[in-house]
Design goal:
Layout: H1 3-37, H2 40-68, H3 72-107, H4 115-141, H5 145-174, H6 179-200
Helix pairs in contact: 1-2, 1-4, 2-3, 2-5, 2-6, 3-6, 4-5, 5-6
Length: 203
């Protein structure tokens, strides 16, 4: 293996490690905030981020495998299992968010203000563009479709962050009680798309 590629692989692996650490914190904080505030959008965002953790960890594991010269067939086999898990997880997330959001729309439940949720959303708006930049950078350097795809997933996560933040602010600033469940429902198409893409990659 070329020294330059090995160096880039190490940097990309480190990037994924930090990605997993941050996303794990994001999941914990947003889940607590969402449950406390009765926010479908925050809970849905947290669940989606949970799958992002799995995805980032898997990619980091694959990069580590290449660095260590592991058998490619074993890597592919484990990748396939992971993709099935991700696809199934996204399906469950879509079902949960849809049910929870529609139920709250019918009952007209209103999410309460969450300072914790606001803080983690704003931090994510700062962190995610940085992650996207470096994932694209090393994705191109390593000619890694997986890393470039992960950058795309992070971009989708950035979009979801904006949507959830907008929902949170609209509920509390304008009193639009329906904004939170609607924001949550807007996550569903993207979660479904990511789940389907994960499933098709297993074929």
């Amino acid at each position: 293996m070329e020294a330059k590629r090995k160096k880039d692989l190490k940097k990309a692996r480190t990037l994924q490690i930090w990605n997993v650490i941050y996303d794990t914190i994001e999941v914990i904080v947003s889940l607590i905030a969402g449950i406390t505030a009765n926010s479908s959008a925050l809970v849905g965002w947290a669940l989606d981020s949970t799958i992002e953790v799995v995805s980032a960890a898997t990619l980091g594991w694959r990069l580590h495998g290449e660095l260590k010269g592991l058998d490619e067939e074993k890597v592919k086999r484990r990748k396939k299992i992971t993709l099935y898990v991700i696809a199934g997880s996204f399906t469950l997330v879509c079902i949960f968010i849809s049910y929870d959001s529609i139920t709250k729309l019918i009952s007209q439940e209103t999410a309460s203000w969450s300072t914790m949720g606001l803080i983690i959303l704003i931090i994510s708006l700062i962190i995610n563009p940085i992650l996207i930049y470096f994932k694209r950078k090393y994705g191109h350097k390593l000619d890694s479709p997986a890393l470039l795809a992960d950058a795309k997933d992070t971009f989708i996560c950035l979009y979801q962050t904006v949507v959830v933040l907008a929902g949170l602010l609209l509920v509390n600033w304008l009193g639009w009680w329906w904004a939170d469940p609607v924001a949550a429902l807007l996550i569903v198409p993207y979660a479904a798309k990511e789940g389907w893409e994960a499933y098709t990659k297993t074929r």
